[in-house]
Structures are given as structure tokens and as C-alpha cells.
Amino acid sequence: MTETTSGPARGSRSKGSKANKGLRIERIHTTPGVHPYDEVVWERRDVVMTNWRDGSVNFEQRGVEFPDFWSVNAVNIVTSKYFRGAVGSPDREASLKQLIDRVVRTYRKAGEDNGYFASPADAEIFDHELTYALLHQVFSFNSPVWFNVGTKQPQQVSACFILSVDDSMESILDWYKEEGMIFKGGSGAGLNLSRIRSSKELLSSGGNASGPVSFMRGADASAGTIKSGGATRRAAKMVVLDVDHPDVEAFIETKVKEEEKIRALRDAGFDMDLGGDDITSVQYQNANNSVRVNDTFMKAVESGSSFGLRSRLTGEPIEEIDAKALFRKMAEAAWACADPGIQYDDTINHWHTSPESGRITASNPCSEYMHLDNSSCNLASLNLMKFLQDDDAGNQRFDAERFAKVVELVITAMDISICFADFPTEKIGETTRAFRQLGIGYANLGALLMATGHAYDSDGGRALAGAITSLMTGTSYKRSAELAAVVGTYDGYARNADAHKRVMKQHSDANAAAKRMDDLDTPVWAAATEAWQDVLRLGEKSGYRNAQASVLAPTGTIGLMMDCDTTGVEPDLALVKFKKLVGGGSMQIVNNTVPKALKRLGYQEEQVEAIVAHIAEHGNVIDAPGLKPAHYEVFDCAMGERSISPMGHVRMMAAAQPFLSGAISKTVNMPESATVEEIEEIYFEGWKLGLKALAIYRDNCKVGQPLSAKKKEQKEQAEPEVEKVVEYRPVRRRLPKGRPGITTSFTVGGAEGYMTANSYPDDGLGEVFLKMSKQGSTLAGMMDAFSIAVSVGLQYGVPLETYVSKFTNMRFEPAGMTDDPDVRMAQSIVDYIFRRLALDFLPFETRSALGIHSAEERQRHLETGSYEAADDEVDVEGLAQSAPRHVAAPKSSGSSSQSRSGSESAKEAHSSTELVEIQLGLNADAPLCFSCGTKMRRAGSCYLCEGCGSTSGCS
Q1: Which of 11, 324, 472, 701 has a 20 to 30 A CA-CA distance from 20?
Q2: Full set of structural domains in the chain with CATH
Q3: Does the pLDDT at position 334 exceed 60?
Q4: pLDDT tens readout for residues 714-741
């Protein structure tokens, strides 16, 4: 694709080699003389985004301009997240053209100013090709580029940062400050605390040192304060400690002890109304923790031998411990609260291109970026589904040639960005300019594998993923070597040349040893092999422009921008998707990848239609008409009846890892029934398989997470037991003068209250009174008004389960621990109230489908695997007394119902995660979006909101 020509060197920041050439840029998608904007149909749309829980408008901008093939979700997210300028002002961006031009023109100018292009014509081709790829959702830069590039504010292009801290109070205080400034800007950072001496060592004054765990408290409080001070998302941070640090056991136990504290206080019925002291004492909640293990430790675990914890000052062992017991403690902690994760130090540094400049000791919060301390990485991700094509005979192929050309284009642009980028600290800026770390990656792997008829957990799926990853990284380093010939190597290359070339050889050898499986992956492997041969040849001659080239990031918001079905390296969430409609409303659809997969597997058109219809009704492929059981695995997803096994996720990571400069952002989800031994096995296999980092999450291991429920037939729950009656004016059924009632005292987040719930003598709840604060106060008045509104609704026939489904999981302060052993954690007062009412007045089947169980039922589930009591324990008469009464519902407009949704299930769903919950009768362990109230879904080791594009992490 690339040629070089003589020309002046302009502005290269590198000191490594002489630069006297410019790149010749080849066209990939564009036509000479035709601008990419002129080849698409543009249309105007109105973007109005609401919080569906309270109906408030979160964002509104009308008349924005986008191509007609962009989805509603992509348009909404780009308009609300990335358009710059005050809404309603003349300076506000109103077209995708303005956004892309703002970014692309900045990159082009910097490329011209710094001697990247051989001629103005090459600069124009670069401009057009970059514009085309962004316009057609072929790739996307990470969010900071869209936020900052081309604006008057600092042009920060990186989302991932690694800091450092030394064993001095000055350095520790610098850490607090630098971390705070990064959080303030909405990004995240990671660091290793192992240089700080342990609590078992002495200070120069003679007293004992505080140890890193104590300093984590201050940093955690700082992160929590910045988070609650109005930032758009939680502070994202990673804290790492080496396994040979004398305080490693205390580090492992930090979050476990906090979880135990919460449980103990609640289970003991402790009165939390003590001014909030006990709530604020819950610490270490604002960071992901990881233990950095080395091969010596893992071999000691394997052999059952001892392992030495070493002084930070002298490096000498100060304590011998049982390695297997410490490894067990890590697994037990992860089982209890999902922390700590694990990072494999020797593996990480075995693939380190710049070891002469320092070891890799830490990662960014999502664990995909790993390089030198005080550095950053800017990311970009390619949409893999854009490269899946059918040939003339109707056979699928992955367009490896075009993929490689786009990778070259994107890597060139990413390297150019370092020439003009700003950084949060001077030290980070110096390191990044000196080593020019890049993080190209991809999204939509899960969709690609399914569309090509590959099971995610299969040899064929792993072979295709490995081939694509190898081609991506090999092409990136090839372009890096070509850039080195044009504008010079990175500053640290001369010192690290031997190590860098060694790592390139390791990648090439891994590519050669990889197993080829079928007609799809074999041509991609061939292209990757050719790319790695070029890497070794060109690198030997010219060196490399970048110390790092590739990672696999979560691709949260930018994945939605590109209309990707799956994020990063993740499999598909489920077979049925939630889709917003252009005219307003929503519907559920079967994934577009399903028909492609069925055709790839050889099914005829009528068979495909029948299977898709079955999936639309049931949400899975089990017993689908005509579908061979051997093909079920192709349609396995992250959630549902046939979810991918935890080790299947680990094996996929291992297939991609040898072909990445950095690592992979991914959490291995495990069922609630998973054992400590299974977590030990995953952590151990991660080391054996050559991963760089690994984290697990066991469902419902967090106290505050919703409990999973067994699958229930939703239609049976929703169907009333009496005939529907058309009644345009519902009749109120008042309670008698004397009625039974229950009065409950409660505390939520330190706020005390009382609830009186009165019921009909034989027919369920009919009245609720809430008492909080002093009579005459605003809060007391609002509680009285709320009580009246709920009570009148109940008496007019609104089912209690409707209130429960709407008000549980609603988040606002006060929130946190309660003194109710059945409801241990509440996200707000109303969340607690309706969980308590559900437990008191709804039958087991109804509230179980909503994920609400008593402490006794949860204990029974742990012991027997079932929430339900044995037949001889069921109080049938009691259930009948507390059953909700069913009143005929007013008839609603059919047209209104249809415009809102294409199905009964989708009416109550507001994202794909919520749709899966409805179809499968379970609750996903995911938080609600802080902006729009939609349940988020996992993206790598972070969470992503499909509704508005918000993320819980750093990318």
C-alpha cells in the first residue's frame, strides 16, 4: 500500500533516526474527485433522550444531520456525547460532517506539519479515507478524541493512564493530586503500590511504616469525593500490589472485610441511624484491585512449596509463607467480592519492548494497557463486521487485504495524534512522546464468529480470532517500521532495539505455530504471516516508530457509535436485541447475525425463517425446528439458557493474547454456584495459557447486587385470573373502617422511617402510610403525598407488582445499608419500601420472578440450590391471604401500544439487558445508568449503557 519518496523532514519529535521521506497513501474506499460526503444520503433527525423512569428529558437537540443508514441509537449517542458547543447556541455542532471534519482536519494538518505525507495529494487521500472510514462506521477513535480534538480546550487524545508512586510522602501526595486531575477529566488511571514499604518495616525515625493499604484509604476517599462532586461517571482506577510484598495478605482482604462488615451489621439488626458513620466506613470501593504474581510464586503454588515476602528497602525475604495458601486466599476473596484480579508479571515483561527503560509494573483500570509508568495510550477500534463479505458464489470470506489497509491508515492517524496531543501531567507527556504507545483494537468479534457459523468456545472460533488479531498487530508494526523510515523511531528505541526486535520475533513465531482450521481463517493467517515477515525485515532496517501498537479495549461508547452488536472480545449478550425505531418507540428483533450463521451452516431459507421465529418467541435455539443439536453451540451467548462456560472465555483470551502488544479488557463471568476451586483453576490456567491479566465476577457475590431468579413464564404472571372488562373509568374500592395492617420501622443509609401497610381483609394490600422526618418538613410532606398517590392507585386496581417493578432499583440518596435482614442493601428509600411490601404481600412466584427473596429463602438457595420450600413447608393458606387482587384493566389504544413496541416483552424493556431479563426470567448483575436509568451491560471489565452511551470505566 505504501511507497516512500524523498522530501524534507518537518517537525519530527523523534531523535532516533534521520527522516527524509514521506508516505504515499493509497485509496481504499474513496473515488478520486468525489468527496465521501457526496456518496451518502443525508437526513435530518430530532434527538430527544429521556429518563424512562421519571419521564424527564436528559437531552434534546432537533434537526441534526446524519447519514440515513445510521441507527437511532448511534445518532442519539454521538449527538449527546460528542457534539461540541452549548446546546441551542450558534456554535453548537449539528451535523456529523462538522464532527468528523473537526477531527480529520486536525489530524491532516498535524500530519502535513510533521512530514508524514509525500505530497499534498497524499494528504488529501488520507483526509478522504479517514473521513470515509469514520462516516461508514468502519472504525472509531476513542472518546477523548471526539471530546477534545479540534476544540479550544486541551487536545487530550488518551483515555488510559499509568501513574507511579515511590516510597516517600512527597510522591504519595503527588499520586493523590495526579490521580484526582485525571478523574476530574473523566479518565482513569492505574498504578502499582509495591515500592511503598510495608507495615512490617521500619521508618528512618524508628517507628513502623504505615504500609500501602493505609494510603489506599486516602486515595479511595479522594476518588469517592471527586465522583460525588458532579463528575459524569465513577472514578476508574486500578491498584496493583506485587505478590511478594509483605502486606499482600492485607491487600487481598481489604474488600472482603468491607463486605463482611456490611453483612455483619445487617444480619445483627444493627441500628444504622448513627449519623452515617458506619456507612462512610465502607472503604476501598472506588478501585479495581489486582495482585501481580510472578512465575516463581506460581511454580511454588504448583509444587506446594513456600514463598518469600521481601523487604521493600533491601529486597531480602522477611517472611516465608505457604504459596498455595496465599493463592487460595486470593481465590476466596475473588469468590466473595470479585477482587482482587490477577496479573502475570513475568508474562507481561516477557513481551515488553522497552525493558531497558523500566519494567511494566501496572495497567490502566480496564487492564488492557500495560507499559511504562507515567505513560498513556490512545485507542481506536475497528468494526470487524465491516470486513465480512460474500464472494460471487455466495461464500463468506474475511477481507484480509482491505482490513490490513485500514489498519495502516488508522495506525498512521493514531501516531500523528501524539504530535499535537496534550497530557494531564508533564511526566506522562514526556514518556508518551518518547515511546509513542498506541492501542489499536477491534469490536464485534462475537457477532463475526456467530455470523460465520463459529461457536465462541470452539477451535474454529479461536483460530479466526487469533488470525485477525495477528494480522492487525503485524500490520500495525509493519506500518510503524515504515513510519520510522519517514519520521524517525521513538526516542527510546535505540536503547531498547534488541528487546523490541526480540518481541517482534516472538509474535512472528507465535503466528507460525498457530493452528489453522478452515477456509475462513487460513487466508487471514497467510496475510498475517506475510505481515510479520515484513515487520522483521523493515524493523531490522529502520527500527520502529511505536513501542506498542495494539490492545483489546472494552469499546463501550464507540462500539455503539459504530452500531456494533458486541463489544471488544466479548460474545453476544443474547440472541434477541432491543432496537429503537426512527419514528419513536422500540421493538425486539432477532440478531441479524443469526440468519447469516444459519446460511453459513447450510440451512435453507424456509428453515432459517422457522428457526428465527422460534428464537423470537423463546429467546434461545433449544428445540428450534430443524436445527441440529450439534449447531446449538454456535448460538451460545453471554447470558441465557446456553451461556458460554467461564473457561470458554479464558480460552478465547488465550487465542488472541500472543498477538497483542498489550492485554485484554475482559471479566470472566461465573455463575453464583461457582466454587473457590473453580476460581483457582481459572487463575492457574490463565497463567499456563499465557494471559497477561485476568479478573472474574461471580454472580451475586456483591451484597448490593440484585439476586438472580429462576426462569418464570412471564405471560402466566401477567395474565389476570378474571376476564378483562372494558372499563374506561375504573372504580375505586375503598377499605373498610377496620382493616388489618403491618407497621415496620426501617433505616436506609442512616435515615430512619416508619411504614404502615393496611390490607383488605381477604384481598391484598390497599393502603400505605410513610413517616419520615419531622411533621411539617418538606420530606414529611412529600412522603405523605407519595403515600396518598400509591394508596389511591392500589384502591383503583393498580397491581402491587406493577409498583414493585417500577420502583425497585431506583437510585438516589439516602441509599445503602438497612437494618432489615431480608433487604440488606437498598438503592433508595422507595427501593427498600417496595421490596419490603413485595415480601409482605406478593406471592412467592411473583416476587421471585422480580428477584426478591427473604433471607430464609436465600439461605435455602445456598443449601439446596432452590429458593422454594419443600411441599410440606408451603403455607398455601397464607399465600392465598396475601395474594394480590386482580382488577380489570382499562382498555388502552392499540395504536399507542404498537408504536411503543413490537412485542409484549419489549414494552417493559429499555435495553438489550432488560429484554434478556424479561425473556429469561432472571436479573443481570449490572448497575443502572446514572444518566437515564437503563440497566447497563458489561463491556470488557466495565459497564456500558445502551441508552445513552455512558460507561462506568475509563474508555
Answers
A1: 472
A2: 3-153+377-559 (no CATH), 164-356 (3.20.70.20), 725-890 (no CATH)
A3: yes
A4: 333 444 444 433 444 577 888 888 888 8
Taking residues 259-269, what's their average pLDDT? 66
**pTM check: above 0.70:** yes
Residue 255 has pLDDT above 50, yes or no: yes
Can you say how many angstroms the Cα of residue 231 is from the centroid of all Cα atoms in its chain? Answer: 18
Neighbours of 225 (CB within 10 A): 13
Kindly tell me the burial class for residue 273, based on how many C-beta atoms sit within 10 Å of its own C-beta (0-12, 13-18, 19 or more): middle
Q: How far apart are CA 694 and CA 331, in angstroms?
A: 12
Rounded to an integer, the average pLDDT of 622-638 is: 95
CB-count burial class (<10 Å; 0-12, 13-18, 19+) for 315: exposed
Instruction: Compute the 3-state secondary structure of the chain and give helix, strand, coil in percent, each to the nearest 5.
Output: 45, 15, 40
Quick check: 306 and 317 in contact, CB under 8 A?
A: no
Set 366, 419, 929, 932: catalytic member: 366
pLDDT reported for residue 26:
95
Q: Tell me the residue length of the chain.
A: 955
Side-chain-side CA neighbours of 221 within 13 Å: the count stands at 8
Whole-Å CA distances, 330 to 253, 307, 325, 494, 538:
8, 15, 9, 40, 44
- Tracing cell 432472571 back to the chain, one arrives at 922
**Hey, how many other C-beta atoms are within 10 angstroms of the C-beta on 79?**
24
3-class secondary structure for 399-428?
Answer: CHHHHHHHHHHHHHHHHHHHHHCECCCHHH
Give CA 497 to chain center in angstroms.
Answer: 36
Q: Nearest 5 degrees, angle CA 687-CA 692-CA 697?
A: 80
User: Is position 368 annotated as part of the catalytic site?
Assistant: yes
Nearest to 942 by CA among 521, 389, 366: 366
Q: How many Å apart are CA 498 and CA 392, to the nearest integer? A: 47
Classified as helix, coil or strand, 619 is coil
Weakest-pLDDT range from 145-149, 519-523, 870-874: 870-874
651-697 pLDDT per residue, tens: 999 999 999 999 999 989 898 899 999 999 999 999 999 999 999 99
Rounded to whole angstroms, how far apart are CA atoms 76 and 911?
Answer: 14
Active-site annotation holder among 368, 482, 678, 857: 368
Name the residue with higher pLDDT: 494 or 7: 494
**Residue 717: Cβ-neighbour burial (10 angstroms; 0-12, 13-18, 19+):** middle
The DSSP string of 116-146 is -BSSHHHHHHHHHHHHHHHHTTSEEE-HHHH
Q: Which residue has the cell 471479566?
A: 667
pLDDT in tens, 274-308: 334 454 566 666 688 999 999 999 999 999 999 99
Catalytic residue list contains 678:
no
Higher pLDDT, 177 or 480: 480
Confirm if 938 and 669 have CB atoms less than 8 A apart: yes
Q: Which amino acid is at 241?
A: L
Residue 47: what are its φ and ψ, rounded to 5°?
-110, 110
Short-list 190, 331, 319, CA closest to 256: 331
pLDDT digits (tens, 9 = 90+) for 38-66: 999 999 999 998 876 666 788 899 999 99
